[in-house]
Design a protein that fits this description.
CATH topology of the domain at 9-165 and 192-221 and 261-277: Rossmann fold
Number of strands: 12
Radius of gyration: 19 Å
Number of helices: 9
CATH class of the domain at 9-165 and 192-221 and 261-277: Alpha Beta
Length: about 290
């Protein structure tokens, strides 16, 4: 794991096997001035403070992007200890290590810190009020990051998908291939985020050398329901599967979901001069990659 080039800044990316972590691996070649260190949970236990400190010291970390998260929203209602360790405790350890080594810390959070009772896109200053345990752990993680390192950048995102890993887009494609019709929730609104776009935006922040701490929101442009999302997937892959809208009540889950979690992305866009793509355009890019797999 040693840094192979002392002249390059070392970027630690945790959660290497997740959707966002995999997208950073795709971007690595575009940024030859940086040395990327990708770690999965079996390579570095981020909920072990001593292990984190030793890793930072041994590998001379210059920047840390925390993509690691416990994201099984329903399982979090029962696997509380694990969700807390990854989404709360570990974030504090990473933020503290970054402060000790004067390394910028970028942490990924979620729209689930909101209760979804609003009707206008959420700005970074809106009142948080998670409706499930996962959302609460992510909010606590944000607070730990700021408490341990007030120079942290926290990016809340939503409805993340990618050509990697398990996600809504790939699930819909599979179901549309297997069934004549499917039911998809039509009363939860948000906007998808193509993980590749988010990874590019984060690299734009890093390469701008304009590290302005704070909370930011990032998702693709637009406001849709899961039903709208599924309909567009069906259209773009020319599926004959009939997509029917259903209510949240018709599709009960162990964890409650916010019914409205559209994020206002103006702050990140204006602060770092980031152009954010429309959700349909990004979906098209992802589906084109999936066709090649």
């Amino acid at each position: 794991m040693q840094n192979d080039s002392s002249s390059k800044k070392v970027i630690l990316v945790t959660g290497a096997n997740g959707q966002l972590g995999r997208e950073f691996q795709q971007l690595e070649k575009q940024f030859p001035d940086y040395h990327f260190l990708f770690v999965a949970k079996n390579e570095l236990s981020i909920s072990d403070e001593n292990a984190v400190n030793i890793f930072f010291k041994d590998n001379h970390i210059d920047i840390c992007i925390n993509c690691a998260a416990y994201t099984a929203v329903d399982k979090a209602e029962t696997e509380k200890e694990l969700a807390t360790a990854v989404n709360e405790t570990a974030v504090g350890y990473l933020a503290k290590a970054c402060k000790n080594y004067n390394a910028p810390f970028i942490h990924i959070s979620t729209d689930y810190v909101f209760d979804g009772k609003g009707f206008n896109p959420y700005t970074e200053n809106e009142q948080t009020n998670p409706v499930n345990f996962y959302g609460q752990t992510k909010l606590n993680g944000e607070q730990n990051a700021v408490k341990e390192n007030d120079q942290s950048i926290i990016i809340r995102t939503a409805w993340v998908y990618s050509s990697f890993g398990n996600n809504f887009v790939k699930t819909m494609m599979r179901l549309m291939n297997e069934r004549a019709s499917i039911g998809v929730v039509n009363d939860q609104f948000g906007c998808p985020t193509y993980a590749a776009d988010l990874a590019e935006a984060i690299m734009q922040i890093i390469t701008s050398n304009k590290f302005i701490a704070g909370i930011y929101h990032y998702s693709n442009k637009g406001k849709i329901s899961w039903f709208n999302f599924a309909k567009e997937i069906a259209e773009q892959i020319n599926s004959n599967c009939v997509v029917n809208g259903i209510t949240t009540a018709q599709f009960p889950t162990p964890a409650a979901r916010p019914s409205f979690s559209v994020l206002d992305t103006e702050k990140i866009s204006s602060t770092f001069d980031i152009a954010i793509p429309e959700w349909k355009d990004s979906l098209q890019k992802c589906l084109a990659l999936l066709k090649l797999k």
